[in-house]
Design a protein that fits this description.
alpha+beta, about 25% strand, FAS1 domain, 8 helices, about 180 residues
């Protein structure tokens, strides 16, 4: 009888542990908790150290820790590495703070837009949905033949959503593979 109880308890603990791990997406080797805000989660992602440094240099930490809700299209470190040589270093200089804020706010949208909501809006708008960013510019979302969501900036640059629906206390993050640039 004792072995049976121990087996049942072991199964329950294993099941609860598995469910807990499944409910928190991993980004950059770290679990993303829906009880934390965008900044609190992002600082733990080893794939977003450049983005976090940029948010700090731009003075946007408090804004992204506020109630929101926000949808953040979060470029990875490798996305920043695709920019022309010296671009990140230039933007991180204190005298370029305004330009850095412009680029970062171009990746943020008011509201909590899940992947399903984004896809629904794309389909309702003949496979091209225009999204207004906090920077005041426009992004365009579309689906490819495989159902993958792509974002297009005003210059024709594009980024693919590689991880969707990373829910936060104050919104949602969708990880992207390129930095999008405003006009």
């Amino acid at each position: 009888m004792k072995k049976k109880i121990v087996s049942v308890l072991t199964f329950v603990i294993f099941s609860l542990t598995s469910m807990a791990q499944e409910s928190y997406p991993m980004v950059g080797g770290a679990a993303m908790y829906p009880t934390k805000n965008i900044v609190e989660n992002a600082v733990n992602s080893k794939d977003h150290t450049t983005l976090v440094a940029a948010v700090k240099a731009a003075g946007l930490v408090d804004a992204l820790q506020s109630e929101g809700p926000f949808t953040v299209f979060a470029p990875t470190n490798s996305a920043f590495e695709l920019l022309p040589s010296g671009t990140v270093e230039f933007l991180l200089q204190p005298e370029n703070k305004s330009q850095l804020q412009t680029v970062l706010k171009y990746h943020v949208v008011a509201g909590n837009w899940s992947a399903a909501s984004v896809v629904e809006m794309i389909r309702k708008n003949n496979n091209k949905w225009m999204i207004e960013t906090l920077q005041g510019g426009k992004l365009y979302a579309s689906l490819d033949d495989n159902g993958q969501v792509w974002l297009w900036d005003e210059n024709g640059g594009k980024a693919m959503v590689t991880i969707a629906d990373v829910n936060q206390k104050n919104g949602v993050i969708h990880v992207i593979d390129h930095v999008l640039l405003p006009k």
